[in-house]
Design a protein that fits this description.
Chains A, B, C: This is Hydroxyethylthiazole kinase. The structure is a homotrimer of 258-residue chains. Chain A is α/β, with parallel strands linked by helices and 258 residues long. The first copy, chain A, has a single domain, classed as Ribokinase (UDP-N-acetylmuramoyl-L-alanine:D-glutamate ligase, 3-Layer(aba) Sandwich). The first copy, chain A, has helices at 3-12, 25-35, 45-54, 67-83, 98-110, 120-126, 144-154, 190-201, 208-227, 235-245, 250-257; strands at residues 15-19, 38-40, 57-61, 87-90, 115-119, 133-134, 137-138, 158-162, 166-169, 174-177. In chain A, helix 4 (67-83) links the parallel strand 3 and strand 4 (87-90). In chain A, helix 9 (208-227) crosses helix 10. The longest helix of chain A has 20 residues, at 208-227. The two termini of chain A are 16 Å apart.
């Protein structure tokens, strides 16, 4: 973990423009606020370019995407590419329907993401590898390192594949992460909020592999730390504890894990 | 309560496709995850049919319905009917405006719901019985058993009428339920989440009256159990405690109520 | 603080129709329920007029506004003006993009708000005063009393300018408020929920300056009270504690502050 990444986020409070799904907007905004960033979540296609141009980073998450959203996402992503700020693409449930597959293809034709983040089923779909999925969940098994590598090569990007083991694959190297907690799977949008945390970390001046690994590693530590709180008795109390934990220093989070 | 219903949900983790209102999406998804199901909440009309076809059950909730949503709901409901999976219809605030009344009529012309769930004011409206309402709340009084029966006959469905006493009326019999807690009335979407829990229970192979009663009875028990937690001091702490409680075994919930 | 305002809200349970942003709908509804009001959040332009006509007050919040929303807001605001019920306008992030500036201008041409509520950057924009903003946040400094006064004169309304010090400016007088807590800035929609609480207080028969000051003063007290709860360790636990606190008596909230 590169502590400089966390420090810079908290010093600069990067403004992240989110075009994300309606299920997780509130949780994502509160999670990013706790971590140290500043969320904005404008939706209208008329202001997508302008709002992204004001931001330090952009998150595109297709969880509840409609045709109007696709256009707004492309405009926001293009503005980010023009300005040279990071774009995270989270192709939620891309394998579930052809509408989603087409939407992601449309976006990827017009926007170059800095990071593509998803579970194994989502990233496998992007490189035409068969994988078992259920709605927006990945339930298949296979060579996740290979999937991540293929995504990084095909899209010339950094792939962040989340799961029990997370794989970060830049165009040059692979890093694995083992932090995390089973309760995250019981919280809707746990993956979506990570996309926002990633976008914030990508606004710092550390190397991309440090930015991505720090985001993913810190996120998993925060989950373990939160779950260890004696007040946590299920996903409801965990959500509150996890939002709290995202504001902690990395050292504090680590102290409880050992 | 038929414990087999809860057991089967937790074993099979049914995928419920939600076309529901924007106020309650996050709470509903977390509630269903805690209970043991898997939520998906795609909105686009282009994928409504496909997503419902992948699911084990469908929830249609009109709380913030727009014209585009009506079409998506009909497509999802029809896909569910074709596949033979359960459909729950929650006609939130149907009596409030003619737009809602028309929307529900349009849906009911095209989709056959397995369960229609609502408060007394909503169900009374569906059978043209006068009832006092306030926004999306029911504040009138009258013969709720009769209302539920009329809905079950008119729509050849199971009616679940929620209130201080809940009435479950299949086409053949009536069951009443008394579990619940006043704090549920202070949580937005408490009724909406019950629709999702109902949909999950309807995916099991128990008789419909067992499925519906178990969902409603368990839900009320979970509310009482959650409210008894000493950490609960209002609706904010109750929400967290209630989400936690939805993951408990029925026996655990019952132990605290006596 | 005029205790009669709180008492009347809790006795009458005013129905507030919200046309508000998707990030904060759930939090706002639960906050208003805890405080003592009744939320409704219909979105469709087809029912905007009808739903507002059934309500006791209307909140217009442009946080995630789209073109369709602008029309619905105008219809709801006009219905409220015709019926003589209060309208609160919250021009979230109005300075960020020309789309927002135009949207607010369109609304203000057709609707007369009882209160315009916003941070310094938002209200400064409405009176063409330069101010530094970042996304939907105000980060500039300047004469906030003058900004509030200008808004009240230009729009012949009551301006509520929120910040470390809050300014309430009716067309006749200025009141300042100092209650509040830094954790509010870590909760998305803290300002948005205040708009809803304001709308509820405006339905009472107290003078406008009492209604507005009571809403703002009570809200800040609730935040301090909530933050003093030993369970609060960050924004997640604060959200739950704050929702709880909104249901308390003013005397209870004050007892902890000293």
């Amino acid at each position: 973990m590169n502590l400089e990444v966390i420090k810079q986020v908290r010093k600069n409070v990067p403004l992240i423009h989110h075009l994300t799904n309606q299920v997780v907007m509130n949780f994502t905004a509160n999670g990013l606020l706790s971590f140290g960033g500043a969320p904005v979540m404008a939706k209208a296609e008329e202001e997508a370019h302008n709002m992204a141009s004001l931001a330090d980073g952009v998150l595109l998450n297709i969880g509840t995407i409609t045709r109007a959203d696709i256009k707004a996402m492309i405009l926001a992503g293009q503005a980010a590419n023009q300005k040279g700020i990071p774009v995270v693409l989270d192709p939620v449930g891309v394998a579930a329907t052809s509408f989603r597959t087409d939407a992601v293809n449309e976006i990827l034709k017009e926007v170059k993401p800095t990071v593509i983040k998803g579970n194994a089923g989502e990233l496998a779909n992007l490189v035409d590898t068969p994988w078992e999925t259920k709605g927006v969940e990945s339930i298949g098994e296979g060579n996740i390192a290979e999937i991540a590598e293929k995504v990084s090569i095909k899209y010339q990007t950094t792939a962040v594949l989340t799961g029990k083991t997370d794989i970060i694959h830049t165009t040059k190297e692979r890093i694995t992460n083992e932090t995390g907690h089973p309760l995250l799977a019981k919280v809707t949008g746990a993956g979506c909020l990570l996309g926002s945390i990633l976008a914030a970390c990508l606004t710092t001046d550390a190397p991309i592999e440090d930015q991505a690994y720090t985001a993913v590693h810190f996120y998993g530590l925060a989950a373990s730390y939160a779950a260890a709180n004696p007040s946590v008795q299920g996903n409801g109390t965990f959500i509150a504890s996890f939002l709290d934990a995202l504001s902690r220093d990395p050292g504090t989070l680590e102290s409880v894990i050992t």
